[in-house]
Design a protein that fits this description.
alpha+beta, 6-stranded mixed sheet, 5-stranded mixed sheet, 9 helices
Length: about 500
């Protein structure tokens, strides 16, 4: 929250531009930097990964993605089509990056999006799990086939991590390469969670705790385990220290440098408070206790599953942790409480292609999203001339922009005349030809829930060009004429500065 991130979509996921990433730090130190997979901090320059320290980027920038086989992706801002299963494809590109840069320092970030839903696993992995019995169960309404699919997707992910480690060994790079493995927060369905309380979206232990493994042969003693608590916020200061890289951040970060502990120092990490926040709920964890978002206190050493509230027996600890949460809210959540007024940025010469997807847009009238979750969604039900799709944008460079939209449209409805407008600038085009492919039915191992958009192939349509002035305003699409029953389903607007 301190860095400007307020949510997970519609632009709220963007990292403030005065923040520096770990990739900024390593790039400044002369490293080649690459990211391959999920990016969840903005799609437009200068929020795009290529603007945040990464020389090379291959993946998707919506945070959540709806296609796992031969998916539409991007490579350094340009549209490409992935090959095969998405996690295998990301690994292929990461391995190529490692091989290309094997004779120089490199920083490789491989953020897999699996095993998140939608539930889709390679057929060979699913075949090994589809008949398996579930012997370890979670609480709540667990769906066995979803759990089996998660296990199949996780086995695929494990295999891809193994590919990376094995290739480092084959290239003779292992003794001089730090490998870090950690995961997302909590399972996103009810399934076995070690008995911990909560799943993804909660601020209890089961919604927060994840594994962290660090490998550096010859430097980190094998099998070493550190007692205590650490957080992903510790990774940047720790890795910078391990590699003797100066952090690029202009101000102190919240994490701790734990490198001395990894190298063989004290096996117990320093006692501290780690705060976790989601949807205005805040909990705090110390080495011994957790104060949950409701003010209940748990002894995590004796009761790791948070079954017994011990606040009444420990009033001083409860009070101190409650005061710490209040102070943290005042310090860290100041910006998160304010309305996000940042526009979507358009028109940078160093990155002339700007994509404005449906997930970042808003609509009026009867237009609605293909599912409740904005990420990886598209707009549907566009049937009236008074309805609009729009973005609050700031144009950096005045000039001529080529306009392309991604659409589908029933053949009988083709021919709607649409207008793109910003201020006095307008572009009028026609939605034709009709393009009405069926929804994908063979990609999902388990039918996806209704909260997620069902996907289909969209067709690019070159509308023409528009002359935009520099400055801020509303960029809006509306229909001038609708000869059929609807205008189109709309996925993305792409602007390219000439």
């Amino acid at each position: 929250p301190r860095t400007g991130v307020r949510g997970v979509s519609t632009g709220q996921e963007r990292l403030n531009l005065d923040e520096k990433t770990i990739a900024d730090s390593f790039k400044a130190a002369g490293y080649s930097t690459g990211a391959f997979g999920k990016w969840h901090n903005g799609s437009q320059w200068p929020y795009h990964p290529n603007a945040r320290g990464f020389d090379e980027y291959y993946g998707f920038t919506s945070g959540h993605w709806g296609e796992y086989f031969n998916p539409p992706l991007e490579y350094n801002g340009r549209d490409v089509r992935g090959r095969g299963y998405i996690a295998d494809d990301f690994t292929d590109h990461a391995l190529q990056f490692i091989e290309t840069n094997r004779h120089r320092p490199f920083f490789c970030y491989l953020p897999f999006n699996t095993p998140h839903s939608p539930w889709a696993a390679p057929k060979e992995d699913w075949a090994r799990f589809r008949e398996r019995g579930i012997t370890q169960r979670g609480s709540g309404k667990e769906k066995d086939d979803e759990t089996r699919c998660v296990l199949a997707m996780t086995e695929n992910l494990d295999r891809n991590v193994g590919r990376v480690v094995r290739r480092l060994d084959e290239l003779g790079l292992s003794t001089n390469t730090i490998v870090v493995y950690f995961s997302d927060n909590g399972p996103n369905t009810p399934r076995w969670n070690g008995g911990m309380k909560g799943i993804k979206g909660s601020t209890d232990e089961g919604g927060l705790r994840s594994p962290l493994f660090v490998r550096w042969p010859g430097k980190i003693p094998p099998g070493r385990q550190l007692a205590g608590i650490a957080s992903s916020i510790d990774l940047m200061p720790t890795l910078c220290a391990m590699a003797s890289v100066k952090p690029a951040s202009p101000s102190p970060v919240d994490g701790l440098d734990l490198s001395s502990h990894l190298f063989g120092g004290a096996a117990t990490l320093p006692d501290r408070m780690i705060f976790s926040h989601w949807n205005n709920a805040v909990s705090v964890r110390t080495s011994r206790h957790r104060l949950d978002a409701r003010g209940a206190l748990f002894d995590m050493e004796k009761d790791p599953n948070q079954t017994t509230d011990v606040a009444s027996e420990n009033p001083q600890i409860t009070r101190e942790l409650g005061e710490a949460v209040s102070a943290w809210r005042r310090d860290v959540l100041k910006e998160a409480k304010a309305q996000d007024t940042r526009p979507f940025t358009v028109g940078y010469r160093e990155f002339p292609i700007t994509q404005l997807p449906a997930r970042d847009g808003l609509s009026t009238g009867g237009i609605r999203r293909s599912a409740n979750a904005p990420n990886s969604s598209y707009f549907v039900n566009w049937k009236a001339t008074g309805d609009t799709i729009y973005w609050d944008v700031e144009v950096k460079t005045a000039g001529t922009y080529d306009v392309v939209i991604d659409y589908t449209c029933p053949l009988a409805d083709a021919g709607s005349k649409i207008e793109l407008r910003m201020g006095d600038a307008t572009l009028v085009g026609t939605v034709t030809p009709g393009w009405d492919p069926p929804l994908y039915t063979d990609q999902d191992t388990i039918p996806r829930p209704l909260v997620e958009s069902r996907m289909k192939p969209f067709k690019p349509l070159a509308l023409g060009s528009i002359d935009l002035k520099a400055g801020r305003g509303r960029l809006a699409l509306k229909a001038l004429e609708i000869p059929g029953g609807s205008v189109m389903d709309f996925r993305r607007l792409k602007l390219t500065l000439r």
